[in-house]
Amino acid sequence: MITVAHEALIDLIVDAAGHVDPRLGGAGFNVTRAVARLGLPAAYLGRLSGDRFGQLIRADLARHGVHIAVEAATAAPTTLALVDLDPAGVPSYHFYLDGTSAAAVGPGEAVLPEGTTAVHIGSLCLVMEPVGTSTERMAVSAPEGVIVMLDPNCRPGAIASRQAYLDRLMRVLHRADVVKVSTEDLAYLFPGQDAGAAVTRLLKPGPPCVLLTDGGAPVRAFAGGQQIRVDVPVAPVVDTVGAGDAFGGAFLTWWIGNGLGRAGLGDPDAVRAATQAAIYAAVVACTRRGAEPPWAYELAGHDGWRWLPAAEPPGQVSETPGPR
């Protein structure tokens, strides 16, 4: 099982014409569905609201066969994100966080479900409280055999204290096995430093693998003392919302699905193969509106994913709370 400890929220996507399109979203929601759609058991470790939006999120996760690790709903309203798309489909975000559902995970509730082989953490759940402290403690104390993947997914507008945030990331990095960052993340974490120097700082605490994404530019993976460059195929881009989440979820799914563990993350050849497979997933996500990770049948014909079932799953449902 892959467990995802992140936020679930509602993306209010606003296009250049001012149209508002509400979508189920949040890094944790997106990564969890990416794993579930590719056929591995998935658990979502985060608090959901009892309001209508929270009910829609819960129902969607249930339709995907996801185990919801924190079962009880909170009376706090669902967390919201205003997503403003530029003409190229690149989003900027404004978050409504205070007193909302995603923060409401206490230390006693951030417990990895039995059977967890990998956990994916990061984003707003390292910023809000009490979930930030709870998630950090859960990650740094993860059992020896569990892969910890960290995606900071930095949202500067949501970070009250940059130094406290950096301190938390450094503590998590000492236990992390694979770190996925974008060039935007590096610009916030290590301003003024080139990518190579910044990645070196991420590797220093001990993670054996760092994955660096840069939009349509080649993905750079750092593992086993090597830098690996993997090209991103050209595809028509509708928007890039959730592309990084699709990439991260697919990387872990490919890794666990191929029977690999923590030790393999130092193998450049294996990391290259997983990175290429994850890129395919992210590219598919970019070809449709909102955070819509691919299903297994959509990747089954690609190198690295040939073990996936090629048949379209029955009974697919709309994942949006509003009109398309």
Short description:
The chain is an alpha/beta fold and 324 residues long.
Describe the protein's architecture and organization.
The protein is an alpha/beta fold. Helix content is 31%, strand content 20%. The strands form two sheets. It has a nine-stranded mixed beta sheet with strand order 5-4-1-8-9-10-11-12-13, sandwiched between helices. A four-stranded mixed beta sheet has the order 3-2-6-7. Strand 6 and strand 7 form a beta hairpin. It starts with a strand and ends in a 25-residue tail after the last helix. Residues 317-324 have low confidence and may be disordered.
Q: How do the strands line up in the largest sheet?
A: 5-4-1-8-9-10-11-12-13
Identify the overall geometry. globular
Q: How are helices and strands ordered from N to C?
A: EEEHEHEEEEHEHEHHEEEHHH
Class by SSE composition: alpha/beta
Strand content: 15-25%
Helical proportion? Answer: 25-40%
Global Rg: 18 Å
Mean pLDDT: 92
Weakly predicted, low-confidence segments:
317-324
> How many individual helices?
9
The end-to-end distance, rounded to whole angstroms, is 32 Å
Write the layout of secondary structure elements.
Elements: E1 2-5, E2 9-14, E3 20-25, H1 27-37, E4 42-44, H2 52-63, E5 67-68, E6 80-85, E7 91-96, E8 118-122, H3 131-140, E9 147-151, H4 162-173, E10 178-182, H5 183-189, H6 195-203, E11 209-214, E12 217-223, E13 226-230, H7 243-257, H8 268-286, H9 296-299
Parallel strand pairs: 1-4, 1-8, 2-6, 4-5, 8-9, 9-10, 10-11
Antiparallel strand pairs: 2-3, 6-7, 11-12, 12-13
Helix pairs in contact: 1-7, 7-8
